[in-house]
Specification:
The protein is of the alpha/beta class. Among the domains are: about 60 residues; about 140 residues; about 200 residues, Rossmann fold (3-Layer(aba) Sandwich), CATH 3.40.50. It is built from 34 helices and 14 strands.
């Protein structure tokens, strides 16, 4: 029996695919894929024919994945497209098309996976195609990719180029891909920061989307995407101009989008969410409670569907909670919606993503856990609020704590599972030379490891006695955080603001009526501006004085709105009669904008040369410590007692001069002090000897470490925070490097560097900064900074803190730092930005 000719099978497949593009019948595309597979399986196919078959199979699989959501199809498409492009020379007539195919397939993979390394590689392929052939197709493809890059990095130049490319592609009115170009132009216009407040921008986007839909036949494979985009556009139009006409347009568009989006389609969740929003707004305008309830059921359908994207489910849950509150429905339904929101949140940053991509995912929903906790407090359920705060904050820190697990019990009961766990833990951040070079292969490797991790945890938790292995703490466990002194969790939400206080024998809630989320943001911004002005050497004396006035005003507000009510509730608002008694300890868990303010320094401070009012500042009443989450605090309290630890080495790292950064002459003085007076046995890495590799090699087995160098925080630099060592321009020592360490004997890290406890505003509740990285790596006590302070003050604070601790006193870090800060305050009480930057994080 004769085998079918590969060329004929390829032609048949292309014809079937063309019919699919017109009619949109899935079986036509399935048949095309079958023909292409048969052609590849036929014997005797020449290399050129095989490459054509593979290229077409890649495109057909990607097209089917776009409709079905199949990741298996997309993975195969990406591999095929890359393989074919790799054997196609630049002079080949198929070169541009095959470079484009790889870029488009990787872009589609990014949309499903959110792995930005894949997105960046997609852009590289599409740039090559554009340089070779600047056509409407290559311009439009690159415009789509750049628009996605802008959504991640918010670089206005990237968006500007995307818009230019999209406009030029859309100008080709006779091109076969005219409808796609118009849709892409509309989406790019909708991405403009001005779109939400500029009717002209939305009008242009609407005109482009009209043109796209008019050129898209009913049943066309791209009809679903374009109708969903149109519904989202009309939602923005209605938000900008809420009137019956714009509402009618949005409701009609949302229903059409839902009607054409089949089950299993990647956009099904978006379609249902838009339909629910349209139905809800229509019902509200007509006071139709039954219709409102139906809209909420639409949203619950999205939330409860485990097969839909997590981000869409969270968005639906937040919308569901919001409309439930607005509708005045059963409050138990709102509570359930909030709980589901926070339940889903830890699933959002997929384990298959790198740390920076996980941060991008979390940053989509700032304040989510705070709003959920605020509602639980309003409902009179502080235990639920506590649980929601821990489940919905510090997701990445929790994962770091997971990997620091002590597997001793597991090793005794199930040594083979413990070995599997150890193998996966050491491969989490594998960057060995044997790792795949291309981004797609690396992404797939990470995805495979994430699947193995989840499967292994399921297996371990199925064993008797290990049901809670690596699960989040229960409410009962969280309540134990207050046994060694009060822990104050400050909940800042537009709904309400409270202090949830854990004490040795109870938990209680203290309302903060003079604190609002809006004012907290304003005060945090005002304080940041005051610090920047006060530390700016280019400013004059009068400007510095004005900046300190502003800083004192913020600390005064912080005292009255937050600290005083909390200390009053605890009975700690007055100085103790016996001044020789040590001050009581307190642990602060700030949230939202309060993470950027020095709660330990809140108080009423005098004008220059005026006396300090007695008992009107936190420093005079308690010794403050901070913890990003209760889980990290409990993790360190539950670890081995410091006194029982074996002696370890000490390390001093100093960078008096740093390539590409201003000199730090005080760094050498700190290193000299530490080595000469404090830790004479310490190893010292200074200047050129302080590299990423040398520091990472020295930290294991290190009990105490002191850094005197520059740092970059995620609040002042794009990407991941890092320390500026000698080779930082090529190999920065990042927060990921540090958090991945497992330092069993570590006790104390002093980070005499700028901004080591500052996170990006959208990640304020994640605690992703250098100090927390050292904490989760194993250091029970960490001293870090909220901002950069003066060089001489930093030197004195470091010296006085270490002297107050003594040679072996890491358990007294909080008291030692407190005394050193008080000493600096006595020298300049009216200049708090000089001496209040340093904070203690620890057990």
């Amino acid at each position: 029996m004769a085998h079918p000719d590969p060329g004929s099978l390829n032609d048949e497949a292309v014809a079937l695919w063309d019919r699919y593009d017109v009619l949109g019948h899935p079986e036509l595309l399935d048949a095309a894929i079958d023909r292409l597979r048969s052609g590849l399986g036929a014997p005797g196919a020449e290399a050129g024919a095989r490459n054509s078959l593979r290229a077409n199979l890649a495109g057909a699989l990607a097209a089917r994945s776009l409709r079905s959501g199949s990741l298996d199809d997309l993975r195969e498409a990406a591999k095929l497209a890359r393989d074919v492009a790799g054997v196609t020379a630049p002079g080949d007539p198929h070169y541009v098309g095959r470079q484009t195919a790889v870029g488009v397939t990787l872009l589609q993979y990014y949309v499903r996976s959110r792995d930005t390394s894949v997105l960046d590689e997609a852009a590289d392929f599409l740039e090559v195609a554009l340089r070779q052939e600047p056509s409407p197709v290559t311009r439009g493809n690159l415009a789509e990719c750049l628009r996605e890059q802008y959504q991640v990095r918010r670089d206005p130049e990237v968006l500007e180029r995307a818009l230019d490319l999209a406009r030029s592609a859309a100008a080709e009115v006779t091109h076969p891909l005219y409808a796609r170009s118009q849709s892409n132009l509309a989406l790019t216009l909708m991405s403009l920061p001005t779109a939400a407040r500029d009717p002209a921008v939305l009008a242009q986007a609407r005109q482009a989307m009209w043109a796209s839909l008019a050129a898209t036949p009913a049943g066309h494979p791209n009809e679903v995407e374009r109708k969903n985009s149109y519904a989202r556009l009309l939602y923005l139009v209605h938000q900008q101009d809420p009137n019956p006409s714009t509402l009618t347009d949005f409701v009609r568009a949302s229903r059409q989008a839902e009607n054409v989006t089949p089950q299993g389609h990647p956009l099904r969740a978006t379609a249902i969410r838009m339909r629910a929003a349209g139905d809800y707004l229509r019902a509200r305008s007509a006071s139709n409670q039954a219709a409102e309830a139906l809209s909420r059921r639409w949203l619950r359908h999205v939330v409860d569907n485990a097969g839909l994207p997590v981000a869409e489910r969270i968005q639906a849950a937040m919308t569901w909670a919001g409309v439930t509150l607005l509708s005045g429905a059963d409050l138990s339904e709102a509570r359930w919606a909030f709980e589901r929101t926070v339940d889903l949140f830890p699933l959002l940053p997929g384990r298959h993503l790198g740390r920076s991509d996980q941060q991008v995912q979390i940053a989509q929903f700032p304040g989510l856990a705070l709003d959920a906790a605020a509602y639980a407090l309003a409902a009179g359920d502080p235990a639920l609020a506590l649980l929601l705060l821990e489940q919905g904050r510090g997701i990445l820190l929790a994962r770091a704590v997971e990997t620091a697990v002590d597997p001793a019990a597991l090793e005794r009961a199930h040594p083979e599972l413990a070995a599997d766990l150890h193998r996966l833990l050491i491969r989490v951040d594998d960057q060995s030379p044997s790792a795949p070079r291309d981004s797609f292969a690396r992404a797939e490797l990470r995805r495979d490891r994430a699947r193995q991790w989840d499967a292994l945890l399921d297996t371990i938790r199925a064993q008797p006695g290990f049901e809670g292995f690596l699960r989040p703490p229960t409410v009962a466990e969280l309540l134990t955080a207050g046994r060694e002194g009060p822990v104050v969790i400050l909940v800042v939400s537009p709904l309400r603001c409270d202090a949830v206080i854990l004490e040795p024998t109870r938990m209680r809630v203290t309302p903060l009526p003079h604190l609002t989320a809006a004012e907290a943001h304003q005060q945090a911004q005002a304080f940041a501006e005051a610090v920047a002005a006060g530390r700016d050497p280019a400013r004059g004396r009068a400007e510095h004085a004005a900046a300190e006035d502003d800083a004192r005003a913020v600390l005064r507000w912080l005292w009255h709105a937050v600290a005083e009510p909390v200390l009053t509730a605890l009975g700690l608002d007055r100085r103790r009669p016996n001044a020789s008694e040590p001050l009581p300890r307190i642990w602060w868990v700030p949230t939202g904008p309060l993470t950027f303010l020095p709660l330990h320094a809140a108080g009423e401070y005098p004008e220059p040369f005026a006396p300090v009012p007695p008992g009107r500042c936190v420093l005079d009443l308690v010794v403050s410590s901070y913890t990003p989450t209760l889980r990290t605090l409990l993790h360190h309290r539950g670890s081995e007692n410091p006194s029982a630890r074996a002696p370890g080495s000490s390390l001093v790292v100093a960078m008096p001069t740093t390539p590409g950064a201003p000199p730090l002459p005080g760094a050498h003085a700190e290193a000299d002090l530490m080595h000469r007076e404090i830790w004479p046995e310490a190893d010292v890495l200074e200047g050129q000897s302080a590299t990423r590799r040398s520091v990472l090699a020295a930290l294991p087995g290190c009990r105490r470490v002191h850094f005197a160098c520059h740092a970059r925080s995620s609040a002042d630099a794009a990407g991941v925070p890092y320390l500026l060592l000698h080779d930082h321009q090529d190999a920065p020592l990042t927060v990921s490097d540090i958090a991945a360490l497992r330092l069993g004997g570590a006790e104390f890290a002093y980070l005499s560097a700028c901004d080591t406890t500052r996170a990006a505003p959208a990640l304020a509740d994640e605690g992703v900064h250098l100090a927390s990285a050292f904490h989760v790596a194993g250091f029970r006590h960490v001293v870090g900074t909220l901002w950069r302070t003066a060089d001489d003050v930093a030197q004195r604070l470091a010296g006085n803190s270490h002297r107050a601790m003594g040679g072996d006193g890491p358990g007294h870090v909080a008291h030692a730092l407190h005394r050193a800060v008080q000493e600096e305050r006595r020298a300049a009480p009216s200049v708090p930005t000089l001496w209040s930057a340093h904070i203690h994080i620890g057990a």
